[in-house]
Amino acid sequence: MNRIIGCVPPDYETASLGINRLCQRYPFVSNFDVGKSVLGRRIIGLKIGCCEDCVLFAGAFHAQEWLTSLLLLRFVELLCEALDCGGYIADVDCRKAFLGRGLVIVPTVNPDGVEIALRGSGAALDLSGEVERISGGDLSSWNANARGVDLNHNFNAGWHILRQLEISSGIDGPSPRRYGGSAPESEPETQAMAALCEKYRFRHVLAFHSQGEEIYWKYGPHTPSRSALMANVLAASSGYSLSSPEDIASHGGFKDWFIERFARPGFTVEIGKGQNPLPIETLDETLLRLSEMMMLAIVM
């Protein structure tokens, strides 16, 4: 069978077309609007299985980390193939795994940022001049959305503490990275993700970032006791190490907010090693290494 999701950078048009084709080939997959970006691009979600007991996988919160989007799309296609033919992924019977369970995938939380990273400041449309000003013409470290806000610093979990850490680090306004915005959840992308979680009340969530081959699983006193066991399972199946973010990365993230808001497990998975954006040639190896972990995350 011809592969739908190719090994090419997931720009907005390519990713949207791939998602539509997946839904056409596999009628048990549906796509929906999670929300809209600053520039009005769709933040697309995919649903498979039971919506009453769902897990969430989300990627590309950061622009240069677009390989996480492609990883999730390729995993969805692999999963769909297995569900369609009654197959297995990493010795897990996929049809049995989805009995009474479901998965929601948001491949690209930050579609504007990914477009800027892949296509340059012109992809910011009416904000292209502002992106040029903020970046000084160097987009090599652009992780933010189109307004220069780091979405994984913009969630309402220790945001005010994080804001002081940012100021202490010299980040006092829109920036290519690590500016948490003017207020928690000031951005339409973070608002959309928060609303999605309020709607589905996910059993747990996995946020995919790069790089480091690490898994973060704790945040404050609301971290459930079962999170430690789950984190150890995810680490053992992937070969990744368990870690804790420090300093300016220790608040304001999506998994931080999810844990604090729902007292349910949340995980950040830092895929691969190297300098972002990670080489697209590493995708197949990364998918092979993480597919068991991703299946176990659906089942747990």
Describe the structure.
This protein has helices at 12-25, 67-85, 94-97, 111-119, 128-135, 159-168, 188-200, 226-238, 254-262, 283-299, and strands spanning 29-36, 42-49, 54-59, 88-89, 92-93, 102-106, 205-210, 214-216, 241-243, 266-271. With 300 residues, it is an alpha/beta fold. Strands 1-2-6-3-7-10-8-9 form an eight-stranded mixed beta sheet, sandwiched between helices. The protein has a two-stranded antiparallel sheet with strand order 4-5. 50% of the residues are buried.
Compact summary:
Helices cover 39% and strands 16% of the residues.
Features:
10 strands, 10 helices, 300 residues
Largest sheet: 8 strands, mixed
Distance between the termini: 30 Å
Shape: globular
Beta-strand content = 15-25%
N-to-C order of helices and strands = HEEEHEEHEHHHHEEHEHEH
Number of H/I helices: 10
User: Structural class, please?
Assistant: alpha/beta
Radius of gyration: 18 Å
| Strand order across the largest sheet | 1-2-6-3-7-10-8-9
User: Spans with pLDDT under 50 lasting ≥5 residues?
Assistant: none
Report the average pLDDT across residues: 96
The helical percent reads 25-40%
Number of strands: 10
